[in-house]
Specification:
nine-stranded mixed sheet; Aminopeptidase; 394 residues; four-stranded antiparallel sheet; Alpha-Beta Plaits; 36% helix; alpha+beta; 11 helices
Length: 394
């Protein structure tokens, strides 16, 4: 076992926190249910944020406040600066205003029950264990419930944190969803683009021969599906939405597609974006060559819907090594992984960061049938505590 983790597990305050987490495992689960029941679609997290702020105040943490983006922050421990940040995102991909978690056997089923009801509950439980058991930390622990992590939120909350040049923690841990084995230290970057194709439009019979934006969308989608993609580092390209037109017998004035481009390294992502844009332009050129003489040409407009940075915290870094060692010490074999989380932003800025699951098991993420099973729930919170404390001592 890693000496740092062994020493932490042997400490009386950490042992007390471990016992507290085990004894209050059902309480943490109740908290997870309560959080999940509060709607928090991306861009409208205010009710859930207020709930978390009240909890932080109840724990008498220091510097409890909301910031200009809507993030909720609190500090534990002495010292200056943010120290080690422990973050969990508030928002979900679901627009439902009424969410009623259901019990199905040993599982809880509800939109967002794992992502990120579990992460938020674990973060609050960790903070409470520290406060109740007077856990010693060599640096402050800063707890942050962030807004805008999902989809078109484009990591808005964590980007706001790091826009402050004075906010440079010694380490960053994102608690995102359930799980006990993954240690996410590679940030999957992304570019989200909308390609809009516009032309003269007209009657589908009388004006036939004018350039058709919908046909160009189809050609571009096919071309993007056939792009040669990097295997290592991994890259993906997906057409995720298509739209356009307003009636059944009209050649549309405009049609569009949305792209989700991802890669583990920035140069690969930049090259992929160039290839995708070129594929869209080829679709325009092809459509224009086929249009009737004297008719207006098809035009392409590109807009950015989101940009998430990529990068890596080396697997040799003490933070990653602490996460690996803590996972093993708790009887689970760690899996080093890549994902898109709040940790992307600090990683891209050279701040050591990882994302961890917050215990238990889950599935059907981002579906209405999302589920959570509380197997090893308190173990996931304990792992996060061990990693955070080890990071404070580095």
């Amino acid at each position: 076992m890693d000496d740092r983790i062994a020493c932490l597990l042997a400490r009386a305050d950490v042992a007390a926190a471990r016992s507290w987490l085990e004894a209050h495992d059902e309480h943490t689960l109740d908290l997870q249910l309560a959080l999940t029941s509060i709607p928090a679609p991306t861009g409208d997290e205010v009710q859930r944020a207020a709930f978390v702020l009240d909890r932080f105040q109840d724990l008498e943490l220091a510097d409890v406040a909301s910031d200009g983006a809507g993030n909720v922050r609190a500090r534990y421990g002495d010292g200056t600066g943010p120290g080690i940040v422990i973050a969990a995102h508030l928002d979900t991909v679901f627009a439902e205003r009424v969410i009623r978690p259901q019990k199905e056997g040993g599982r809880l089923v509800a939109p967002g029950i794992g992502d990120n009801g579990r992460g938020l509950a674990a973060m609050i439980a960790l903070a409470q264990a520290c406060a109740e058991c007077e856990v010693r930390a060599s640096r402050p622990l800063t707890f942050v419930a962030t807004v805008g992590e999902e989809g078109e939120g484009d990591l808005r909350g964590v980007k706001h944190l790091f826009a402050d040049q004075g906010f440079r923690p010694a380490g960053f841990i994102a608690l995102d969803g359930p799980g006990l084995d993954r240690v996410v230290h590679r940030a999957t970057g992304s570019r989200r683009l909308r390609a809009s194709f516009s032309g003269p439009g007209g009657h589908s019979w009388a004006a036939f021969g004018v350039v058709n934006p919908a046909h160009a969308v189809g050609a571009a989608a096919c071309a993007i599906g056939e792009l040669k993609l990097s295997v290592s580092p991994r890259a993906t390209a997906s057409v995720v939405r298509i739209g356009g037109g307003h009636s059944l017998n009209t050649i549309p004035h405009e049609a569009w597609l949305d792209l989700d481009l991802r890669a583990e390294e920035e140069p690969v992502l930049e090259a992929l974006e160039r290839d995708a844009v070129a594929a869209c332009q080829r679709a325009v050129d092809r459509a224009n060559r086929r249009r009737a003489p004297g008719t207006a040409a098809l035009e392409l407009a590109l807009s950015t819907l989101g940009a998430r940075p990529s990068g890596t915290t080396s697997d040799a870094h003490p933070l990653v090594q602490a996460a690996v060692a803590a996972t093993r010490a708790l009887g689970v074999e760690p899996q080093l992984a890549s994902a898109s989380t709040d940790a992307n932003v600090p990683i891209s800025l050279g701040v050591p960061a990882v994302a961890l699951g917050a215990g238990g098991k889950g599935g059907d993420t981002h579906l209405a049938s999302e589920w959570y099973e509380n197997v090893g729930g308190s173990v996931g919170v304990l792992r996060a505590l061990l990693v955070a404390l080890a990071a404070t001592e580095h």
